[in-house]
Fold:
Amino acid sequence: MKKYAIISDIHGNRGALEAVLADIRTHAVRKIINLGDALYGPLDPAGTAERLMDLNIMSVWGNEDRIIYSAPANEPSPTLQYVRCRLNREQVEWLSRLPGTAIIDSVLFACHASPRSDTEYFFWHIHPEGPVLRDGREMEKMIEEVSSRVVLCGHDHVPRSLFLNDGILVVDPGSVGLQAFQDEAPYRHIMQNHSPHARYTILTEDKGTWHAEHQKVAYDWEAASVLAGENGRADWAFWLRTGKVKAD
Ligand SMILES: [Mn+2]
Structure:
């Protein structure tokens, strides 16, 4: 039996990462795989980078890792400035050297969002009215260049896994660090898990059969929420504390 822990979208939430790593230790996994967007956000990018670099796990970069080292210096986002001010040169270099995709143990294909893009949700098509689940054929087309049995993707922060018709298992572990958000592209939409718990996935292979178990871990989300508020992000503060974009 082979076991892996799949983590993604930590977004600088060191407290959530520590809780997830402690939970992973109870599962005796052979590898931890990180699907990116590890550092961006109004929390603890440097502490998160230090921890991930020490762990020496397999990581790919996400779209919001990419902007940390590639957006112009005059980029106006205050949160991006916050992240850049806190990371040292070694941490930014580590981030910029990560691959965009990876194949692990010849059988797992890891990417941030989809095999062909770091900003396209694998499971969801964004319409002007909101997110709609893609159909199986569309998803099969998105991975036609991939020959691995298991495809790992994150970015949408919503845990989900399914077998496509050709037997390929696609696994999205959700987000370690942020359970709700609003985005403006390509249309304004929200993603939310309705609880603040950190998410990750234990992936198991037993005699050729793959199985994904989505995990939900408690951590000190109040502390994360307070930190986000102190760093000028009242929106993140609410998202972190509730796992929702707006009060019901
Ligand atoms: Mn992302």
